[in-house]
Amino acid sequence: MPNIILLGPPGAGKGTQAKRLEDERGMVQLSTGDMLRAARTSGTEMGKKVAEVMDRGQLVTDEIVIGLIEEKLTGEQGGGFIFDGFPRTLPQADALEALMAKVGQKLDAVIEMQVDDAALVARITGRYTCGNCGAVYHDVTKPTKVAGTCDVCGSTDMKRRADDNEDSLKTRLMEYYKKTSPLIGYYWAKGNLVSVDGLAEMDEVAAAIAKVLDKG
Fold first, then answer.
1. Annotated catalytic residue: which of 25, 72, 172, 179?
2. The pLDDT value given to residue 166
3. Which of 45, 163, 193, 210 is the most exposed place for a label (fewest CB within 10 A)?
4. DSSP characters for 5-46?
5. DSSP-assigned states of every residue in 176-191
6. Is 123 a known active-site residue?
C-alpha cells in the first residue's frame, strides 16, 4: 500500500489526480483543509482544539495537523495514503517523516506535477463551471457549444472562481514557490522525488502516476 505526496502549484491538478487514485486504487486522500473542517465538527478532543483555534481566527499549528494525520494513519484502512497540501514547509516535512516512522509506515514517492507558469495561468484564468451541474469548461480548450449555455444540463448559470484571475493566481504561485519549492530539493536528496508533466492530458498524467506507483 503506497503512501505518496502530490506536490505542485495551485491549479496543477493535484485534486483531480488524487480523486482518481481514490476511485481506482482505493487510496485515501489526506487533504489538510478537509481534515480540519471534519475535525472542527467531530466533537473529539482534537476537534475541540481545532475549533477553538479556528474560532479565534488563528492558524492551526503544525502539531495539531500532525495529530490529525496520525489519527487518519492509525485509524483508516485503504490502499495507501495521498498527502495533498501537506507538507508545505521543511519543518512539516521533518515532522511527517518522524510521524511515519512512529506509526510504522513510510513514504514511497513524492510526485511533483511540473507545470509551465504561463501555461498554468492561461489554463486557470480561462476556466469556468456550470453553476447548476458543475461541468467544467475553458475559454480556449473546451468552450460550450452554445455560448453561455451548459452542454450537459442546458443551464445558463456560468461561474468563475473569484481567485481564478491572473493577479490572484500569480500571488498564489509566488507563495507556493517561496514556501513549498524547497521541498523539491529536500525529497530529491532523499531519493523520493519523481516528476511528471502536470500540463499533459488528465489521462496521460494519471498513467504517469500509475507507472510510479506500480514500480514501487
1. 172
2. 85
3. 45
4. EEE--TTSSHHHHHHHHHHHH--EEEEHHHHHHHHHTT-SHH
5. HHHHTTHHHHHHHHTT
6. no
161 catalytically annotated: yes
C-alpha cell at 118: 504561463
Say how far apart CA 24 and CA 127 lie, in whole Å: 26
Residue 205 clears pLDDT 90, i.e. is over it: yes
**Joined grid coordinates for residue 4:** 505518496
Rounded Cα distance between 192 and 137, Å, is 35
Catalytic residue chosen out of the listed positions 25, 72, 127, 179 = 127
Would you say residue 216 has pLDDT above 80? no
Query: Of 96, 124, 98, which is closest to residue 110 (Cα–Cα)?
Result: 96
How is residue 2 written as a grid cell?
503506497
Task: Annotate 107-164 with DSSP letters as a single string.
Answer: --EEEEEE--HHHHHHHHHTEEEETTT--EEETTTB--SBTTB-TTT----EE--TT-
Element (H, E) at 55: helix 45-55
Q: Are 131 and 157 in contact (CB under 8 A)?
A: yes
- Catalytic residue from among 159, 161, 190, 215: 161
pTM: 0.78
Residue 88 falls in the annotated catalytic set: yes
DSSP-derived 3-state class of residue 197: strand
* Catalytic site residue from 25, 72, 88, 179: 88
